[in-house]
Design brief:
Layout: H1 6-19, H2 25-41, H3 45-54, H4 58-67, H5 77-88, H6 93-110, E1 117-125, E2 144-152, H7 153-158, H8 172-181, E3 186-190
Antiparallel strand pairs: 1-2, 2-3
Helix pairs in contact: 1-2, 2-3, 3-4, 5-6, 6-8
């Protein structure tokens, strides 16, 4: 192992150690702080951000990326979103709404191109079909419809929106956040199969 990779290696170990819950919360915070400083000092900003996201430290990762002028190579908007979803599973829907509003505004400045609308063909299971297989693994081409979905690039990449974290699909917060993140702007049904 070269001398230049030595601090990075140990910083990654510190992150792994703190995420395994083998130490007190206070010690974990200190170790994470030291590991982050080491990684940033080595110029390994991407590694620091990825490590922070992997252990659910979304706000710290956002803070690092907010101080940089450009997007951190190798860290996608989806990475921040997935960390936020993971964190939200332990929080109330009110807290989640606030967190996702802040995440949206950060992502707008981090990578505005992800909110551009794009139409893509998607294959979905046909609802209400008499012959539809109950097991999705056994679905055939006849069980699927092709639909054109126009939504943000971000929404296409992240998959279904986690409505359950905001009080359900019909809650005001979930509707507003789906709109903000560019989910399902319009859908047109296609009768043919891809």
């Amino acid at each position: 192992m070269s001398v230049s990779t030595y601090p990075r290696y140990h910083s990654h170990l510190l992150f792994l150690y703190t995420s395994s819950a083998m130490c007190s919360p206070s010690t974990a915070r200190q170790l994470i702080s030291h590991a982050t400083v080491i990684l940033l000092g080595c110029g390994a900003t991407t590694s620091a951000v990825k490590c922070l996201l992997s252990i659910g430290r979304l706000n710290e990762a956002i803070k690092i990326c907010s101080t940089k002028k450009n997007k951190s190579d190798g860290v996608e908007a989806k990475d921040f979103f997935l960390a936020a979803v993971s964190n939200a599973k332990q929080s109330s829907s009110d807290t989640n709404c606030q967190s996702f509003y802040l995440l949206y505004y950060f992502l707008q400045s981090y990578d505005p191109s992800i909110f551009e609308l794009e139409s893509r063909k998607v294959r979905v299971s046909r609802r209400g079909s008499k012959n539809r297989r109950t097991n999705s693994f056994m679905a055939t081409a006849e069980d699927l419809d092709t639909i054109m979905i126009e939504q943000s690039v971000f929404a296409h990449e992240c998959g279904p929106f986690p409505n359950e974290l905001f009080g359900g699909k019909e809650s005001h917060c979930a509707k507003k956040l789906r709109q903000m993140f560019g989910y399902g702007v319009s859908v047109t049904q296609r009768a043919s199969v891809m």
